[in-house]
Recover the amino acids of this structure.
C-alpha cells in the first residue's frame, strides 16, 4: 500500500508543510504508516545557511503475517547532499502481525539559504527482517545483512543469558547485568571522521605499520598479513590478506580494527568490510583507500602507535553467517574495546529501568 | 636469452623494478645460474648496507634513513613526472594545426600506449605517490588556470556520540541522537558512520547511519 504522507500533525509554525519530509513506502510493503508527527521541527537561519531540524515520530503497523525483528528506513536529501544518505535501523524488535511500533527520526540539514525550496528529505523503506530471517525490501544499504547479523548476535546473547539464569538463578543474572553496565560505562567515547582517498593532513611523517592479529579459534577466515599507513592521529589505506579456512565459499567479511596510542590506550576504530568471492582454502587481498581521522580521544590528542585486527563477521555464499562466540568476545583485548551487542544493551537497560523480574519476563518471551 | 644488465639486476635485488620489468628479470634469473648468483650477491651487499645504516645515529620523530632514502627517490621521480605534466600546460599552443585527423589519432594512440607502459613500469609506491601529486596539481594549479568553480570539496563522514553527519560541498545531513542510554560509534572504511543507542523513551535499539557514495 502506498503511504505518502505530508504534514500530518501540528507544527510549531516554523517549518512549512511543503518542507516536511516525504514518506513513501512500496505498495506491497509489510509495514503501514499510521501517523507521522513532526511536533518539534523547526528551521532557523545561520549566517548564509538554513538549518532545518526535523523531529519525526512515526507510528508503523506490521501488516504482514510474520513477526518483525528489524526495520531499516532510508533517509535521503538529494538537494542537500546528492552523494550522502542516512538510515535509521531498529533491531531486536518483537512485533507481531497487526501490532504497531514507533520509529523516531531526528534529522538536521544545513543548506545554503538560496537553495531550492522543494521537499528536502525523502524517507523510504530499505528493508524489513522477519523472525524466520526472511527479508523484504530493496536492500540498497545492505540492511538485510546488517539486521541479520544483529539478529544472530541477539539470539546468541539471549541463549547465553537464559543459560546463566538456568544455571545460576536470578542473582547470577543480576551480576551479569551489572558487569555489562559497568563495561559499557568504561568504554572510551570517540569522535572519528572517515574521508575517501588520501591523507586529510600532511604535516606529520607517515609510517607503514604492520597489523597484529587476534586469531579467534572458530573463525572461518584467518588473517594472514596486513598493514596500514599511520601519521599522528590518522590511519589510512589498510591492506589485508585473508585466507578462507572453512569448507564453504565466503562472499562477505568484516575485519575489526583496534588502534593503540602512544600512552597505551586502545579502542575499536572501525571496520574494514569486503565483498569478495573466496573459495575454500583461497587467499584474497582487501584494500580500502580511505582515511580515518581522530580529532581527539576524550580531552587528549591521539597519536596512533600500533594496531590489531580481528575477523568480526563472515557471510558465506549460501547466506549463513558467522559471528564470534561469547567465549571469543571474553578475550581481554576484545573485552576492553568491544561494545556489548544491541541485545545485551537492550536487556541491560530493561534491568536498569524495570528490574530483574522484568528482565526475566523479557527473556521468556523468546 | 639476453642477460639483464647489472643495473637491472641491482634494481631487481632491491625490489625497485616496475611490474613488467620485475616479471621479465625474475623469469630470466630463475633459469640463469650466473644472474641468480649476481642477484644473491647484490642482496647480501644490500643487507650489509642496511646493517651499517642501523648503526648510524637515530633521526628524530620516528624518521629512518631507509624511509628518507625511499622518499627522496620517490620525490625525484614524482618531480620529474610532475614537471613534464605541468610543462604541457605552460607550453604555448602551436600556431598552425598541421596534423590531420588520422595523424592525430595515431599520436593519441601512441600517447595512451606510452602512458600505460609508464604506469605499469612504476613500482606501486611510486605510482601511488605520483597519483596523489597529480591530483594536487589538478586542484591547485589547473583549477586556477581554467577558473573552475566546480572543484568539489571532499565529502566527509563524521561520527561522535552526539550524532553522525555527512558533509558535502558545505552542506550537511546529520542524524542526531535523542535522549538515550549510552551510544556506540562505528565506522566502516567503505564510507559510512553509525551511532547505536537504546532509546530512553521506547527502549528500542536504534542504529543511525550516514553513508557517502560517489554519484
Amino acid at each position: 500500500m502506498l503511504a505518502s504522507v505530508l504534514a500530518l500533525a501540528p507544527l510549531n509554525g516554523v517549518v512549512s508543510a511543503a518542507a516536511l519530509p516525504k514518506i513513501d513506502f512500496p505498495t506491497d510493503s509489510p509495514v503501514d504508516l499510521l501517523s507521522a508527527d513532526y511536533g518539534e521541527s523547526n528551521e532557523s537561519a545561520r549566517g548564509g545557511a538554513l538549518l532545518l531540524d526535523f523531529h519525526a515520530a512515526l507510528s508503523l503497523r506490521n501488516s504482514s503475517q510474520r513477526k518483525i525483528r528489524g526495520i531499516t528506513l532510508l533517509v535521503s536529501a538529494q538537494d542537500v547532499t546528492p552523494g550522502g544518505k542516512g538510515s535509521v535501523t531498529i533491531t531486536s524488535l518483537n512485533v507481531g502481525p497487526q501490532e504497531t511500533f514507533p520509529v523516531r527520526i531526528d534529522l538536521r540539514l544545513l543548506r545554503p539559504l538560496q537553495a531550492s525550496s522543494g521537499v528536502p528529505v525523502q524517507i523510504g523503506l530499505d528493508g524489513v527482517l522477519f523472525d524466520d530471517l526472511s527479508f523484504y525490501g530493496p536492500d540498497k544499504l545492505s540492511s538485510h545483512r546488517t539486521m541479520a547479523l544483529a539478529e544472530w548476535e541477539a539470539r546468541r546473547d539471549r541463549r547465553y543469558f537464559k543459560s546463566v539464569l538456568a544455571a545460576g538463578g536470578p542473582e547470577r543474572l543480576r551480576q551479569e547485568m551489572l558487569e555489562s553496565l559497568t563495561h559499557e560505562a568504561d568504554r572510551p567515547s570517540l569522535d572519528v571522521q572517515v574521508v575517501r582517498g588520501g591523507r586529510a593532513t600532511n604535516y606529520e611523517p607517515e609510517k607503514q605499520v604492520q597489523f597484529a592479529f587476534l586469531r579467534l579459534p572458530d573463525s572461518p577466515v584467518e588473517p594472514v598479513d596486513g598493514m596500514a599507513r599511520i601519521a599522528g592521529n590518522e590511519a589510512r589505506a589498510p591492506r589485508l590478506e585473508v585466507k578462507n579456512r572453512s569448507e564453504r565459499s565466503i562472499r562477505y567479511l568484516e575485519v575489526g580494527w583496534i588502534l593503540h596510542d602512544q600512552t597505551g590506550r586502545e579502542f575499536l576504530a572501525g571496520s574494514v568490510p569486503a565483498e569478495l568471492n573466496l573459495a575454500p582454502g583461497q587467499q584474497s587481498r582487501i584494500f580500502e583507500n580511505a582515511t580515518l581521522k581522530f580529532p581527539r580521544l576524550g580531552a587528549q590528542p591521539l597519536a596512533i602507535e600500533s594496531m590489531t585486527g580481528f575477523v568480526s563477521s563472515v557471510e558465506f555464499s549460501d547466506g549463513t553467517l558467522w559471528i564470534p562466540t561469547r567465549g571469543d568476545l571474553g578475550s581481554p583485548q576484545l573485552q576492553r574495546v568491544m561494545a556489548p551487542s544491541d541485545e545485551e544493551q537492550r536487556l541491560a537497560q530493561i534491568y536498569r529501568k524495570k528490574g530483574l523480574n522484568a528482565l526475566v519476563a523479557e527473556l521468556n518471551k523468546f | 636469452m639476453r642477460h639483464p644488465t647489472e643495473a637491472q639486476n641491482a634494481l631487481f635485488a632491491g625490489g625497485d623494478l616496475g611490474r613488467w620489468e620485475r616479471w621479465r628479470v625474475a623469469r630470466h634469473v630463475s633459469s640463469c645460474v650466473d644472474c641468480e648468483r649476481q642477484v644473491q650477491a647484490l642482496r647480501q651487499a644490500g643487507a650489509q648496507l642496511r646493517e651499517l645504516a642501523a648503526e648510524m645515529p637515530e633521526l628524530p620523530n620516528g624518521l629512518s634513513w631507509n624511509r628518507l632514502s625511499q622518499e627522496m627517490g620517490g620525490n625525484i621521480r614524482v618531480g620529474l613526472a610532475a614537471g613534464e605534466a605541468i610543462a604541457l600546460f605552460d607550453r604555448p599552443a602551436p600556431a598552425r594545426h598541421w596534423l590531420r585527423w588520422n595523424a592525430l589519432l595515431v599520436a593519441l594512440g601512441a600517447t595512451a600506449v606510452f602512458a600505460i607502459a609508464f604506469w605499469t613500469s612504476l613500482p606501486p609506491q611510486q605510482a601511488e605517490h605520483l597519483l596523489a601529486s597529480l591530483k594536487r596539481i589538478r586542484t591547485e594549479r589547473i583549477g586556477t588556470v581554467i577558473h573552475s568553480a566546480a572543484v568539489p570539496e571532499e565529502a566527509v563522514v563524521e561520527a561522535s556520540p552526539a550524532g553522525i553527519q555527512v558533509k558535502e560541498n558545505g552542506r550537511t545531513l546529520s542524524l542526531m541522537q535523542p535522549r538515550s542510554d549510552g551510544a556506540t560509534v562505528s565506522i566502516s572504511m567503505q564510507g559510512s558512520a553509525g551511532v547505536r543507542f537504546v532509546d530512553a523513551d521506547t527502549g528500542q535499539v536504534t542504529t543511525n547511519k550516514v553513508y557517502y557514495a560517489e554519484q
Notes: Chain B is about 50% helix and 20% strand. Residues 138-153 of chain B have pLDDT under 50 and may be disordered.
